[in-house]
Amino acid sequence: MRGVWKRSIHFVLALVCSGSLVFGEAAVAFASDHGNPIPSAQSMENVLTEGQDLETSQEIIDKGDCGASGENLTWTLDAAGLLTISGEGQMADYKNYSQCAPWYPYREQIREVLIEDGVTTIGAAAFYNLPEISEIYIPQNVKTIGHSAFAISGIERIEVAPENPYLKSEDGVLFSKDGTQLLHYPYEKADTAYVIPQGVEVITSSAFAHNRYVTEITVPPSVTEIQAYAFSSNRYLSELHLSDGLVSIGESAFDSCARLTQLSLPASVQRIGADAFWLSGLAEIQVHPDNTFFSSQDGVLFNSDGTALLCYPPTKEGTTWSVPEGVKRIAEHAISNCDNIQELVLPEGVTQVDASGISFNDNLKGITIPKSLKNVDSYGFSGNDALQYIMFAGTQEEWQSLSVSGKLEGLPVHYNGTGHVEVVDEAVPATNATTGLTEGSHCAVCNTVLKAQQETGIRVYLENQVISDTTLDGDVYIGPNAVVTLNRVTIEGNLYVLGGARLNSITVNAIHARSFSFGYGSTFYNGTVYLMGSNSIGSMYAATYPVEEIPLYLEEGSLLADQGKVTIVGATPNIARFYCNGKEIPLGDDGWFTLEGMDVTKDREIEFQWVTVFGNTITKVFTVDACKEDGHMIVVDEKIEATCKTPGLTEGSHCTFCQEVLREQQTIPALGHNYVDDICTNCGIDRSKCKHTGGEATCIEKAICELCDTEYGEVDGNNHKHTQLEGEVPPTCTEAGCTAAETCTDCGATVQESTAIPPLGHSGEICNEIAATDDRDGYTGDLVCSRCDEVLEKGQYYVRIYRVYNPGNGKHHYTTDPAERDFLAKNGWIYEGIAWNAPKEGDPIYRVYNPGNDNHLYTMDIKERDNLVKGGWNYEGILCYSAGSDGVPLYRVFNPYVTLNPHHYTDSLEECAFLESNGWKVEGISWYGLGN
């Protein structure tokens, strides 16, 4: 339970009902058991009123009608959050968003729902999105539950009265009474693992959809069917164990299961619905080798004989993939939303790409298409925004004869399988303080990068150049007249002072490089090479001439003992200069360096390391300790006395040679005023005569004088020093919000009032659209809010109306049957494409046939149909359905000059105008379609 009291929906239906239960959109009949008496409303009072006192009268905040017939049911909502449904008969059906239940605006306030005796149905979306309800109680007489009645509510468990003949619950999950159907797994049920009970045969539509907690589900062998959207948007589901016995997997069954990376299909599976794995996290699909309907190769799903590619797992690893030989058809959404794939090769033999077959692959750059490809359904290659080129095995003429659309139009095409035409991109030298580029190459046809150019190291030629806290790729060169400082720099290559450089100075502070070399002929004019801090340099080599011009500064710890070497060709100890803490130390006649202090002079011996580098002469490395206690140049830091207002410092000392603090000064606290008869005994100030200045009054305190520390003036009620923001409410699509109010934490005053923010409003976009094919109905897609994911308007299922033409007699014919279309095409008719799309539901359009002159006529007018039948025409049934006046109008035009095929039907005003200009008569709008 998610609150401090129990929040439930209690359904009390004392009316005995028989028949079937509708949960979602399907009506399901269950076995009944009427042997147990029905408890009265009074006997259920304890269940109904847990956490609530029914004797307490609460203010009614809203009410209205909610019956299927209007006033047959009413609703009331009281101030305690109790929603009560009263009356006789059926409840009205609602839609999630476009036609909400009348209490929907109060969904945040509703804590309990009480449905009284006499109510026989629970309407569609009746209690949709009630976030404060955590439990549903369904009593014994509930018979019909509409689609999405409890969707996206805060439900953690569902309970059913034991006497209910239609339903039962186990562990808070809703089942049919006989246990063969799992109807609803609660949206907020917090278990992370769930084993479906043995005996369940059907997992119904959207049963587990949107659950936010379950990560592992085990399906028993008794389950034969997983219906559409059963696990849709189950974003945390990572393990799903399917058992042998499963026969059918419905449309979009695992849609948007982002963490489900592997799925094994048992031998028993015979059907997989469209988009079953759409937007899932699958990287691998395995099929049992004994399955006779499906197969898998390298984790990719095919039909049984491997001629149809059904699903390339969306997250399968690999950037290049070749469809196996033998595949003839790429099924709808077979390669879709696969972000890893960059190069795709279709083999010779592929003839068909279904609607959206290769679509929305964000990183797909190139596709190889065979000459055998003949048919590409609508949007076959849509949404591949990164596509750069096409490799086509045929000629340009053959490509132009292939009907393609979407992202393939306008792309560069390599004809005859010639592949890329490589063009070399020349190397770019590094410029002044900028990187260069290595040699690369690209394709002259499609500009695809074949060999990427790499950045090279920089060359520094600037005076006063400072480079700090970075990594430089490649070799780094320092050129003429440079004053360069490198601070904490890592160089991937070598560091060079170019030959012939006129270098004033270079400072290297904590640098890492392979080597540090001075080019032959470099000249240093009154300059010095400084190596400071902890440097890591593989070797240092100076091949300069004359070597006497290279003064070298080495700081303690700057070279690695086991790697760092300084080679000065032909040098002797008398040539080099030694510095310690910024001061040059001369080399004495005896070969000793002497460190001089204020009071003490102490000799320090230089350590000699005999090293040979690059076959050159012996080298000396000079190292020395910095100041020791007996070598410090001591300076006294004088004591600073504290005053009434300012702190002081004790006496200390430091070394002026190395700046080391030898005796740290301590802070002396300020004395503060000590008043006797308004006179401070420490500083002598008279607070009675002070003019008081410098203080600042606040909303709760007067000002304090900065001279005498006396409180003066008045409290400033507008000067709030400490405030906080609170009460901010972000707006949603349907509800207003407000900005935060600013209040003072000292006095509690409101500094800035909160301001209202109007609702954002829904922002609709089409989702879940399915293109119709010869084998499957289409779906126009749902209008879904991109902000809150609410479905604003459900789409419609539709069929395609095919139009064929007989050039022999000028007759047009319309049909929804691909077999009839293909039969006529084989007998000389010409298939002209899809005339319009028609919904699966609506007002019927009748098809009649005149056997005397071989004419067909289509009409919505029953009287016209019946009169024609009386006149000898044959009624052949319903062609399709009209979409209603909000659809695309279909015009009927009539040719008064012919008796054969005098009528024609079209949604094109241009075609109407053309026919009218040739003597046809436009008879007006016959019906409405969904467009084409």
UniProtKB/TrEMBL annotation:
The keyword Transcription regulation does not apply. It comes from the Bacteria. InterPro entries: DUF5648, LRR_5, LRR_dom_sf, Surface_bspA-like. Keywords: Signal. SUPFAM superfamilies: L domain-like. It holds the Pfam family DUF5648. This is Leucine-rich repeat domain-containing protein.
